Amino acid sequence: MTTAWRLGAVLVLAGCGSANAGQSDPQACAPVESDTSAVETAADIGGEYSVRLVATSGAQRGATAQGRLDLMPRDSAYRRLTLPDGTRDTTFAFPLYGTAEVDFASVGAVAPGDPKSADPLSPGVLVIERPSGVMLRVGSVANRWGMRRFDGAYTALQVQQVTEEGFKGTWRSGVGTEQSGGHFCAVRAS
After folding, report:
1. Is the dihedral of CA 16, 18, 19, 20 positive or negative?
2. What pLDDT is attached to residue 131?
């Protein structure tokens, strides 16, 4: 075998190994351009999705996780928090909730509680509209109705772009001093 032939074989094999198992297009989940403005409403993101998380920081940097995300409308009684004075909080809204079947640990993320919980009072995924944009918070413990969390483990997906095909943005996760993050893409199920 000549050196040129061996080098060519190595290059072909290296090119074939760039996608993860089950991933036909490694570029299918590219990060959102940095000049996009915040998404202000979750009105268009209800439904079933195939979701992919790509880790760009943390212990699992370079890893990807793929799974399923289902988001459904929340009962109107649970879309806004009631404040101690009896008025409704108009700063935050919780229009959708759902479930996620994703191996979060494989990208270095933690999910406080069950991400597959379909309990509307403690869902696996809670969609939060807030002044800085739309966020999906993962984990049934983090999403218990009537509880405001200020510390503890977290995984949050920040929506940066919504299209007819789905939505995408960045994610971050942490517990204690361990942090991880990256970008994600959610593509509507057909």
Report:
1. positive
2. 87
